[in-house]
Amino acid sequence: MAQNKALLEVKDLSVRFARRDGAPVDAVQRVSFSLDKGKTLGIVGESGSGKSQTVMALLGLLAKNGKVSGEALYNDTNLLTMNDAALNRIRGDRIGMIFQDPMTSLNPFLTIERQMTETLQLHRKLSRREAKQRAIETLERVRIPDAARRIGMYPHEFSGGMRQRVMIAMALLSEPEILIADEPTTALDVTVQAQIIELLRELNRERGTAIILITHDMGVVAGLCDDVMVMYAGQTVEQAPAQQLFAAPTHPYTIGLLNALPRLTDDDDQPLQTIPGNPPLPGMATQGCAFAPRCTYAEERCRTTRPALEPTEGEAHALRACHRPVQAIAEVL
Amino acid sequence: MPPVSLTVVDAPPSRSPLATAARRFVRNRAAFVALLLLVVIMLACFVGPLLSSNNAIDSDWSAISLAPTFDNMHWFGTDELGRDLLVRTLVGGRVSLEVGLLGTLVSGLIGVAWGATAGYLGGRVDAVMMRIVDMMYAIPYMLIAILMMTLFGRAFYLVVLTISAFSWLDMARVVRGQTLSLRSREFIDAAKAIGVDSRSIITRHIVPNLIGVVVVYATVTVPGIVLTESVLSFLGLGVQEPMTSWGVLIQDGAQKLESTPWLLLCPALMLCATLYAVSFVGDGLRDALDPKDR
Amino acid sequence: MLAYTLRRTLWAIPTILAVITACYLLLHLTPGGPFDTEKHLSDATLANLNARYHLDEPLWKQYLHYLWALLHGDLGLSFRYTDWSVTDLVLKALPVSLGVGGVSVPIAVVIGVTLGTIAAVRRDSVIDHAVMVLGNIGNVVPPFVLGPLLVWVFAILLKTADGHGWLPAGGWGEGEWRYRVLPIALLTIINVALIARVMRGSMIEVLSGNFIRTARAKGLPARTIVLRHAMKPALMPVVSLLGSVCISSITAAVVTESVFALPGIGQLVVNGAINRDYTLVLGLVVLTTAVAVLFNLLVDLAYAWLDPRIRY
Question: Which residues does the UniProt record annotate as the domain ABC transmembrane type-1 (chain C) (predicted)?
Fold first, then answer.
């Protein structure tokens, strides 16, 4: 176990949404993880797995009907119980966040310059001119060409890939310790995706920024993350260092996700492997393991009792939530 | 062997969209109450006067300027000529509602025809037709309406026509937009691809999808028309004596506030209640046919 | 965008022309001219009038005379008030209408935008409910009802020591403030109800947008988010609403001036129509259509100015 204190320690984070007509929805159920300085964590799952809500909860960005419980310790303070004023000192300054769709995530009515300088003016008390200078430098760092001229433009004048770089630059202005990236490449072309991931990797290596990357794409995780947490229906099902997870996944869902990745070595006429069925809608309470209806290895026990998240047998630093022992899950890769 | 298997989940029972919409409407309490209120008002206006011992025209000199009272069914009181206000209000309501409904019908027909044609034909025709609509929007219709009432006289049908002449613009725009989007939707292509002919496409796919939009806009148009008629009547340019409408009664009442305020308050109350009911029914219909989370 | 504006302006001309022509024909072709019913004039007077107003010439010539004069800014002489030109009458009535409508619109915008913003930011608060209720009232209580109600409360129920109403029930006097309060209040209430409701809806929608989430993630305080990030996009629907508010202020003027007996443009319209004062009515139609077109244009320009996506 790491001897240094973790940068961010999340324990039993749960998010519940109240609904006007109907039972409340438990979008995230008792998720725990820790992030060390300079490390990257990937949170993987399908839509509705609760991965986005987890990080939204960390920065107080949940919708009004969302309630969070648990603990998220950063610098010895619990992010989840902070009021807005205290959170505002951390958001955008010590912890930055970038979102999925750069077109709608940037304000179309303000110039890039305004949207960047306001962060520095607020958190670093720089003058407008100094802030602009710093912003231009940061844009150059993320390889926006002709940054000094471009900074006066509006978001709609940039391409999708460039907009995402601008967002990253904006999030990095105050040199945060942690960068949270919520599906940063989903809305982009494949080639641009690779560039963005490369950029994030550089940032992590050169500046030591810790990164939490949310994605549904295992390929992206493989390229960037030190540790991986797999979520399903609001719960963590497996957690392990990336190399270990890819080499020897121990949860049926993880195995399914990895199998679904098409490989160059597959035969042409081999059908694409999918995980049949659909993930449960958020809020559909399940008895037993949430994955059981789609799991080949499911036993009676799986349908009645929820498996707890426990250390994986024979592995250090790994957790899994499954009733079946590791040996029983055939390795099908 | 793949590590996953499939379990089939039961599909929910299916219902026709109209039934779902009706069900949603009924569940919306505010809209349902408003609908009941509207029905009550309409019944009162069309049937009510027959149930009263009073009528709208005869003066009862023994009961001049009575405040609302229970004697003789003078529930709204009487005016300075001894005429029962309740019956006058209900009779006036008939006129206001008739203008509203007929006007909506006429302007609705014009609007649907115009908009559907423009939307379906597209291209140059569409551009010209919508340009005309744009031009008409800029015209100060109240002026023209006033002008037409003074020039052509104030017969009932003329009032309806004058008001309808300017009330079809919104409907035309909306219908055109809907037709345009329907025309290019995938399910039309799909229907064509499996060989459904044009007429069936129009009747079975386009018209049902237009109905929703038309109904919603009709409910928005009705209060507008009732209001325009009331304004014209208020200015003395609406329907002529001996016909009366809410606008006329309100104008009359506004002159006599010092002595007989109920002459203003009662017809005003009826008008406002009707407008309220129609707008909530309209909201309810809109929600029922196209629900969005508010 | 310059080209776009010019194109729109150009379309205004045929619109105005079409309206003028239609009204001209309506007025001249229907029976009952301004000189028919009222007085019995001697033949000599009639001849004079005919010559002065070109009434003996064929219709199309009269029409052309009219257009020609129009291009010179001459709206002609009133048929009814023979000593006055239409322009004079309009100039006399305009200050009254502007002094009421022109004053109430800016007030209503300021109050409406503020209330709508507060209602959106503090959902389910007192102000939020008040805005919704006010919006409903505005929908349901028309100006010609609200006006007399205001008169009833402030001029009849509330009385000063010597038995007069606290505020006058109508009239204009010399334009003193006490004659303006109620009409301005009426127009302001109606407009605030509408503007606040639209602003509230628009602001709620903007605040739930993605770029607001980004702004929050940057640690910006709530006030900055609302004023710097949300205000401009939220104002767009209000701007286009203002265009239609200004245009419908003509109807509003007609009703308000009728309720409060104000000698403004609205009264001029009604009286002109009743008296078959051709030139007056035509002049007013020309003016109001031109104003309507102008406002539409201003709204388009404001849109383009506010939204950087609609630019050159």
Answer: 94-299
